[in-house]
Structure formats: structure tokens, C-alpha cells
Amino acid sequence: MHDHLSMLQSAPLSLPALMAAVFMAGLTGGFGHCVGMCGPFVLAQVGAAGEAPGPALARAGGALLLPYHLGRLTTYAGLGAVAGGLSGLVVRATEYRWLLALFLGIAALLFLRQGLVGLGRVAPRLLRLVPAGRFSLGTAGAARLTALLARPLRGLFADPRGLNGYFLGVLLGFIPCGMVYAALAAAVSSGSAAGGALVLAAFAVGTVPSLMTVAVAGRAVGRQFAGLAAWITPPLMLLNAALLFSLAFGVLDRAPF
């Protein structure tokens, strides 16, 4: 494990830089992507938390849905640990360290696609450069999934405090999402379970502010932030892609073939 971490840390950009890249992707992409995808799940919990008995301050704190976010972080970190751990085993067994660079490149391409799609909303002609494909549910899909899950999970949604909210976060953390796929590809490139967990944890923390904004101020305000994010997010996604490509080339410089 130490060899793989030191390999990444000796590259032009370190493992903390990889974490910073996915954190910024979660932070900026959250207002443009997570608000639409996860907003319905958040709003379904906020109403119940606000109506729960108890002091007003406790109800307001419940509306932040901290257990839910902790549950999502647990799932993401677990997925990252599995992805990073498996890649580490493969690299140790085969000595093909270029595989780490390959997955860094995949992560960079996924973030590049997100950035180009975002720019395409501002300059529609750019969308012609982006391959067609669907990597997540989208807003309509998230709304349908919320309705589908409402019955089997209604007990958790009815009182999303404490362990109920935590388990909701754990379960909903498995929802298909293009940004999570990109973060997972970055986690694979870490080459260790610990590195993969840290990468996905950084991504999860980055998505929290946008979802808290929806929880506290409502979806309308979240959409106002989304309008601003539509201009800010694409360049940052492209910057993240450049950083990940730089990491990939740094690993290739030190990888035996």
C-alpha cells in the first residue's frame, strides 16, 4: 500500500491534489447536478423532519439532514475503498502500474464530458462535441425513483432523524450517478483501499453544501444557485480534468511497462 501511495505522491500532483479535484467537482457540480438528482430525496425528508415533535432548534437542525449526509459518505467511502483496494491488488499481482494512469485518464475524460455538457448549455453548439450517453437518472428519473422508493422506505422517510436518516443515506448512496462514476474512477487510480475511501469521502463532502442549501432554503433557491453554477462549474470541471490528466502522465513517467 505504501508503495502505491508514494508513487502517486511522487507525481507532479499528490493524492491530496486528487482529493481536492474530486472535492471541487462535488462542490461545484452539486449545485448544477445534485440539486436536480438528489433534491427530491432531500425535500421528501425535510418536510418530515420539520414537522417532527420537539424544540424548534432541534427541528431546524433535523432539516440539515446530517445523518443522511453521513450515510451517503459511508456508502461512497466504502465504494471507494473497494475500488481502490481491488486496483491495488491487481497492480501488485501484475506490476502493471500503468493501470492506475488508465483510470486517472478515465476519470479525467468523465469530468471533461461533464464540463463540455455544461458549456454546451451556455453554447449549444459545443454539445455536438460530446458523445451521446446517459450516466445518471436525471431530474425526472430521480422524481420517479423517489415515488418508487416512497412505499418500501416510507418508515425511514417519515422520520429521517438519527439512524433512520443515516440508513437512508447509506441506501440512496447507491443510486446511479455519472459524477459518482467519475469519482470512482479516480478512486481506482489511488491504488489502495485507504486512498480510494479518502477520494470518495472528499467527493461526498463536496456535495453536501448544495444539498443543505436545498434542505434549508428550498429547491427554488437551489435552482437559483444552479443558474450561477451553470457558468462556474464547466470551467472548473475542465480544470479538474486537466489536473487528473497531469496526474496520469506523472504516473506513466514512473510506471514500468
From TrEMBL:
Domain Urease accessory protein UreH-like transmembrane residues, every copy: 21-238
Stated name of the protein: Urease accessory protein UreH-like transmembrane domain-containing protein
UniProt keywords, alphabetically: Membrane, Transmembrane, Transmembrane helix
Transmembrane segments: 12-31, 73-91, 98-115, 165-188, 194-216, 228-252
One Pfam assignment: DsbD_2
Source organism of the structure: Nitrospirillum viridazoti CBAmc
